[in-house]
Amino acid sequence: MHADPESPCCREETQLLPDEWLKVKTVPTNGNLSPGVYYPTGSKRFVDATKQLPSPTETIPSRSHRHGVTRRTRRRAILKNGECNILKSRISQRRLRFLQDMFTTLVDAQWRWTLLVFTLSFILSWLGFALIWWLIAFTHGDLEPDHLPPLQDSANWKPCVFNINDFTSCFLFSIETQHTIGYGARTTTEECPEAIFIMCLQSIVGVMIQAFMVGIVFAKMTRPKHRTQTLLFSKYAVVCQRDGELSLMFRVGDLRKSHIIGASVRAQLIRSRTTKEGEVLSHYQTELELNADGCDSNLFFIWPITMVHRINRDSPFYGVSAADVLQERFEIVVILEGTIESTGQTTQARSSYTTSEIMWGHRFVPLVTYNRERQGYQVDYSKFDETTQVDTPLCSAKELDEFYGSQADRRSIGFQSPVPGDFIYRTSLNSGGVPASPILNIADRLVADAIRRASLTNRPSTVKYPPDYFNGPEDQSSSSSEEEIDKKKKKGNKKNGDKLV
């Protein structure tokens, strides 16, 4: 008996399905749906899918759907925008360590802190040297009432700096000296050697502060990190068959005309692992082998490329099936590295995929076409995350290898037979004689394989049969006896004729 879709147990089971996807298994009474595919539904409710399918066709694998079990999800180590979700705490002498590397600290800091330090560095230097100039004038006696600029000629007084009346005058002279403005109203004299020394010192310090702060702002504005805003990763990763093997695929793209030179893509799997000694490694990293279009991970990155990880014996996903993905807790971190063509700097873009972002039974839609009007290849980025459903086995790659063995040419669902007619179709009982999708189940594929083997055997194109081959056994025996009597009569007549001669 089938469970009622409205029952609480079925509602609990539906919570284990991927977001917006429902696993459906077909039976011979309805061949309109293909096995091994997650079909989209309008809601996460199981009852919504029953509006399209009869209740006898609704089954849920018991391996991944157990009562009282919720779907396990992993917390991200790398966010979708590439930021590392890492919080560091309890660092000894943290402030001292960061102050020792002030340049990197200011480059990594937020813009408001960088601009604040930029402004304070100049203002504080102006005020500091203004105070020094005021002390020089005060100790020399230039600020006494009888020695102020209007009375200096009558009193025959030569100050350290002309036209210094108060602290404000010292502040203005400090700005003019540090930035070599030189309005000409205030100048130093040879009366005070300390004034000459301070003027030289302030000029050097001003150049150093300006070079330091301009370097920080320039480095912050030209950081390769901002180049990653125009490097895209697909929102989802898909699993489908390619050349007979289950493959994990994701897509990368570049929005700019200036390309990434020497681009390479890496992928790492982060999940827990238990060693032989019982040690639990909660964040064990495994490198995934990637290739694209028959090449390795080094890309000629001129248009979006689909990166492929073949799930074979060397893959950590070799024993993982579609049902296991619901219960596994892992994260796939993808990294794109290369040199920016316009600046020559090295950049790195990152993203990640969790189990809820892996779509089993889907394939990316092509997005590169040739535009005849503009005489060039056109990339439609509106289809960058778009996928299409394809027939894909729900079992693991290991189980698939055990089933097919070495028959690599018949591993893919939808295998084309060389028999005239191109494909073997299965007609459902409810379809009214209309052919369903090609080779929907293993039984049809085995029939197609048998027909193919029979068609490849060596046999004559036309077969010649005796005239009386299709007669009954009695007729055949009687006809043969009559032929023997006729032959004997002919032989007897020949003998008699010879004797007469």
From TrEMBL:
One of its GO terms (biological process) is regulation of monoatomic ion transmembrane transport. It comes from the Eukaryota. The keyword Transport applies. One of its GO terms (molecular function) is inward rectifier potassium channel activity. Residues 79-224 form the Potassium channel inwardly rectifying transmembrane domain. GO terms for cellular component: monoatomic ion channel complex; plasma membrane. The keyword Secreted does not apply. This is G protein-activated inward rectifier potassium channel 3-like. It comes from Bombyx mori. The lineage of its organism: Eukaryota, Metazoa, Ecdysozoa, Arthropoda, Hexapoda.
